[in-house]
Amino acid sequence: MSNHVASTIGSPKQLVxxxxxxxxxxxxxxxxxxxxxxxxxxxxxxxELAERLETHQSMVARWENAQIHPxxxxxxxxxxxxxxxxxxxxxxxxxxxxxxxxxxxxxAEVGILDEQDRAVLCSVLEAMILRHRMKDAMAATTxxxxxxxVAS
Length: 152
What we know:
434 Repressor (Amino-terminal Domain), mainly alpha
């Protein structure tokens, strides 16, 4: 483990313990897909992630392709290497503060769009927010959490 990761991660067991239930219910395929998604969202290559973790690129590929399931401590190291918490890595509905930064950066670029494109963007955002609110309202009446059934 690199000095940076070791110095900032704390005890991997401490970080992972609250997520053991989530990890035990995630299949290797789900965890691999989640690692892939978060790595892509951070614009990190498999090689870069492997270097941060002091492992080989093929190991990252094996995690992402569900050939092997990383140990709890490794999951904590992956999260740290991707500059996120274990909860953010494992929780499929939590975009986390880094995603917020990415959205704010994109929003800052909206000014380059022409009026028609901005109108389309507003329509898409309004539709997505309305859909989210409707699902929450339906879940409240049925007592279920629709987010539990969202595919990643």
